[in-house]
């Protein structure tokens, strides 16, 4: 499942905007919405550590602000090039993505050098709780 280069580039550009003075772990995310538009975000940390926000949450906020409601695919770029560690979305962000995506939605994760792999949301968040549980 190769990632479209444009989505990786958008996520990498967002990563460059990361505000992460505490962890020094820069993350960028880029979403392709169902209307074809791309929405990106970076992690935004806070001196009150728990108030920090993940890149995926910033990107989702940008998507919603632009009027889109459905994630077709999402790319996340985090960590250092060649680290060999993929920056998979945290548990909270898997649930945030779930709100606007289904089990087959691709989630592409990369290190800063562009090495990575793709998962589906269903692989990362199986048996998930979502809007359908509430009748939506
Ligand atoms: O998928 C992830 C994982 C971590 N972070 C951020 C949160 C925090 O600012 C920093 C270190 O955890 O990376 C993200 O934005 N997305
Ligand atoms: Zn997260």
TrEMBL record:
Binding positions for substrate per the UniProt entry: 43-49
BP-aspect Gene Ontology terms: nucleobase-containing small molecule metabolic process; pyrimidine-containing compound metabolic process
Domain CMP/dCMP-type deaminase, first and last residues per copy: 2-132
CDD domains per record: cytidine_deaminase
Active-site residues, Swiss-Prot/TrEMBL: 56 (proton donor)
Pfam family, one: dCMP_cyt_deam_1
Catalytic activity: cytidine + H2O + H(+) = uridine + NH4(+); 2'-deoxycytidine + H2O + H(+) = 2'-deoxyuridine + NH4(+)
Gene Ontology CC entries for this record: cytosol
Family: Belongs to the cytidine and deoxycytidylate deaminase family.
Role this protein plays: This enzyme scavenges exogenous and endogenous cytidine and 2'-deoxycytidine for UMP synthesis.
PANTHER family: CYTIDINE DEAMINASE
Name the record gives this protein: Cytidine deaminase
Upper classification of the organism: Bacteria, Pseudomonadati, Pseudomonadota, Alphaproteobacteria, Rhodospirillales
């Amino acid at each position: 499942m190769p990632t479209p280069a444009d989505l990786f580039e958008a996520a990498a550009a967002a990563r460059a905007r990361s505000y992460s003075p505490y962890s020094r772990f820069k993350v960028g995310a880029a979403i392709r919405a169902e209307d074809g538009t791309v929405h990106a975000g970076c992690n935004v940390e806070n001196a009150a550590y728990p108030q920090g926000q993940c890149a995926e949450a910033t990107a989702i906020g940008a998507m919603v602000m632009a009027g889109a409601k459905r994630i077709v695919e999402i790319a996340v770029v985090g960590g250092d090039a060649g680290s060999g560690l993929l920056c998979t979305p945290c548990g909270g962000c898997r649930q945030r993505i779930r709100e606007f995506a289904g089990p087959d939605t691709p989630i592409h994760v990369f290190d800063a050098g562009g090495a990575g792999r793709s998962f589906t949301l269903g692989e990362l968040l199986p048996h998930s709780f979502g809007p359908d549980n509430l009748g939506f």
